[in-house]
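Project standup — Tuesday

K.O.: blocked on the structure for the chain from last sprint. Re-posting the sequence here as requested.
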Amino acid sequence: MGHGGNVIAELTTDHREVDELFAEIEVQPVGDARRRELVDHLTIELVRHSVAEEMYLYPAVRDRVAGGGDLADNEIAEHATVERHLKELEGLSAGDSQFDHLVAKLKLEVAAHVREEEGTLFPLLARSCTPEELDELGDKVRAAKKTGPTRPHPSAPDTPPGNKLLGPGIGLVDRSRDLLTGRGRD
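H.V.: unblocked you, prediction finished:
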């Protein structure tokens, strides 16, 4: 993830990539180790995406969109639910009886969240910001995805300033763990 363009184009492209990962997971045989690898990749992408939104998108929504505080709070609450499910999945093998159930539940939650963002939040933000502001937000989101965590941390702060202070450090630890374990390599 890291495509270029304004924040809406960047995040919409992320959404399509997540859709593709879910589709790829679904075509793998039940219990196949490749499902676990793909869920790890999905987790990395979802966590990076969510952290970047929490660091930059939702503060902009709060500041620029009428009623943005409530919108941002709702989106962050949805992220928390997704992150809890990712944490539950983290310790399961693809053959575990709960694995496919949690993946299906996660897909439904992510799809609903994406519909809300693309159908409501993004159009409101586009009307409330200049093209230059949207481009700047896109740059910030891309930078955050490069340094952010790659594993779910449900108890970590999800709003500034806490997430901006701790996120890069947590991300460094996560990427080090990923490097040592081979997690996320394709």
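K.O.: great, moving the ticket to review. The helical segments are 7-27, 33-64, 68-90, 99-128, 131-147, 162-181. The radius of gyration is 16 Å.
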